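The data layer described in this paper is built around a simple, fixed record for each protein. Because each token names a local backbone shape, the row as a whole describes the fold. We quote a single record here, exactly as it is kept in our systems:

***
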Amino acid sequence: MKASSILLQSGNVTGNATNATAGGVARPPSAPLADSIAGMLGLDGVIGAVVGGLIGAFIIANVMMATTAVAGPWAKRKITAAFTDRIAVNRIGPFGLLVIVADAVRLLSKELIVPDGVDRPAWDIAPIVIPFSALLGFAVIPFGSGLQLADPETGLVFAFAAASIASLGVVMAGYASNNKYSLLGGLRAIASNLAYEIPLVVTAASVVIFAGTLQMSEIVAVQQQPLATVAGVTIPQWFAFVNPFAFALFLLANLAEIGRNPFDIPEAPTEIVAGFQTEYSSVYFVLIYLGEFIHIFLGGALAAALFLGGGSGPVLPGFVWFYIKMWAFFLFTQWARSAVPRLRVDQFLDAGWKGMLVLSFANLVLTAVLVGVIV
């Protein structure tokens, strides 16, 4: 298939991501999750929308929190141990899985220590803001198989806006803790967001140019078209294949946004204790830890939707493929955490402002010129 036909298809595909298969065969559109739940309950109108939305949000939030519970206490340790040739948790339950319960009981039963001089209620609100912002971003993520809570026309903008609220929580935690290390962590987090969130959004904008829409389901739908056929195997038009340079930029900027090596400057355990979360314990520490991992999976969900075709894949249902792609991104972040050394603060900022920013705008301009000339 010629490049011109690829770009023409990507600019003109209509319909929902759930009403197209990898081969381009149309099927009846699926309603968003909230509408489906309201229909099953026999509710309509405002009541149906509210009840369906609340139940759908409850389901998605609990699935992501359960995923995080597996990823944080158990999978992170197992993966890090595998990379560093060590033995991870294996004593509590089969494969050590019950360490999830043990850690939950241990952390939640600890005393919540409130240091002298903290600025309340900002110190209390910060641990709630961080996980809430990530969960809010999942409201517009198309999980595949019709599982999407809401599908506004500006869904991509909403996802980035919701995720960026976490920066407010990090800054609040840093300055309200009355601790120099916490304050340094909060300031570093702001520097990180300024330096890398712009390249992240600009790189995503190049996908919008290809797709011609900000609607998440439509961006996924564009990628269902075939890109080429090699030896009888159809390669889908995933934007990771169409523009691998943009995909690489997005992954790197995403690592900085979620604070993983080599960009874990806001926490930097060998430099500033634990950064903005130094003074938190018990349930507040659990909330911050939970928010950190939910943000990792939100980053994986955005990468899957924007570059990896959403829930598309052979044999398995769409939501299974989407879940696998999120976990693949999580594995990538853990590899980076184990294998890549942390940058110094000056190197970190130089890489963002002098490297990622320039490359992201270059990618955006080249994409716009390519689409404009060929289409």
Notes: The two ends are 15 Å apart (CA to CA).
